[in-house]
Amino acid sequence: MTDGADEQQERDKILRSLESLADSYQATTLPVLLDSLLTTELTIQQLKVLAVLATTEDGATGRGLADSFGVSLASMSGLIDRLVAQGAATRSQDERDGRVRRVRATPLGRALVRRLVADRPELNAELLRRLPLADLRALNQGLRAVHAEVARKP
Asked: 89: helix, coil or strand?
């Protein structure tokens, strides 16, 4: 067998192992992730809107959000009012068009989204401190490689 074939076999074996590990990991961490979701006072619709706001630098308009979510402007306006009241979002005048009000996630809103949607239990500082140095190095190298590939966006 050639070196190329050996390398491909090893790659396939590692990929199968990672897939199995990911399945097991997801099953193990699901209760932690669900706990965060179930203890929030945000509705699912509020969380969806807040996630959109937290991932856009310029925020969004009420009309744009209403169109995106397929709801009336009045419904979206009420939802935004509740996010503003909770301190998760702010409304401000658009700098380019004074007639338009932009809605943006606040730092609290962004933190809520990270905690509920993007929080990664496997990167918990307390857990990472317990890993041997060699494992930390390997994890750091692997995550850097994955991040670089994601950031590359084909």
From this structure: strand
